[in-house]
Fold:
Amino acid sequence: MNKLWMILCILGINAYATVEDEVYITIGSDAVLSSQKSLNAPKALKQSSGITVMKVKKSEIESLSHLMHEKFNRCGGFIVHDSKAEAMEVLALEGIRQKAKNLPFADFTIDQEQKATKLVSMVKEFPIRDMILELSKFQNRYYKSQSGVDSQAYIKTKWEKLAAARNDVRVEYYKHSRWPQPSLIMTIEGTSKKDEIVIIGGHADSIAGWWGRERARAPGADDNASGIATITEVIRVMMESGYQPSRTIQFMAYAAEEVGLLGSKAIANEYKDQGKNVVSVVQFDMTNHKGTEDLDIVFMTDYTNQAQNKFMGALIDKYVEGVSWGYSKCGYGCSDHASWHNAGFPASMPFESTMRDSNGHIHTKRDTIDVNGSGGTADHAEKFARLGVAYLVEMGK
Ligand code: BES
Ligand code: ZN
Structure:
């Protein structure tokens, strides 16, 4: 073994150690057992994606370094962190990276031509327009206001009616302890691959103004009655056609997106913690403002999965006739897809325009259907509903 190399390793590591007696490290999970055997039983705190956070005595760092050298032939092979939080953060980010790398892209095939074509042709504009208008009638759908609770009940009843003839479908609130507005989840149980979950979601809340938001007028027609109405039309087609997916499909109307993606964050993190196998997530947030002349559907490239975005573009080419698509970027975690992405699941966000051309009326009382760039109709949102149906037929198989 090269002695100099080893000394440099040890020096490098000690330079990062804190002055406390105990420090937090991240280390390859394959080295945890050996290190526990040869050191004074350091504690493994959390493990994910082949990396473990451990608490070790500062005085043992050097022995650990030797061990890593001799047994694993690694220089260092672990990182010493300033705090527990920092160590945990590495683990979280690494988990995301690893998962993003290992996604089951092989599943993204397009081979359900007959069924998909038939179901896509069932999508209509009017039910979407009607639902946007109905949701816009609530004073607001703010996460803390009574009308934000009532609007969720409205969507729940609507979804339940659509599913009335099915005993493999459930519509349930997902309650949040810190605010009154619940999220809403509709589940179509998969026939043969129940544990694999495909999710289509959008946020149901709306917001406007800075003071007295509980009472402020916030129709949120585009942001995001349009997305919820789009999803509801997808549900209608799935129910009326009697479609039974192999995978489990969940439709979600998230609470409290406008105040920091709170509803979706709670759900996505719970799914992650429970080890649920979410194979794909699509977010519909703002689908009815035709803002970009030569593009209909625009995939946000940040906080999303690249391969899945491509797959969805291919679905448009194949099944959503006459609709053009491209890419844009939010520049930040602008909607609930980011909650899923941050929890390590593949997500996409097909959006109504480029970021630059997006609807300037959102978060005001002027976000109504008549200013959406499709003349008071839901013509633009209809394209997204057709994409949603094609997506579910191909992903649900
Ligand atoms: N629908 C918007 C996000 C959006 C707006 C995307 C314009 C693209 C163009 C969403 O409801 C929203 O308002 N998000 C917040 C961020 C969130 C973390 C509170 C925003 O963009 O300020
Ligand atoms: Zn918004």
Observations:
- The chain is about 40% helix and 20% strand.
- The chain has two domains: 3-92, 97-395.
- The longest helix spans residues 221-240.
- The CA atoms of residues 5 and 75 lie 8 Å apart.
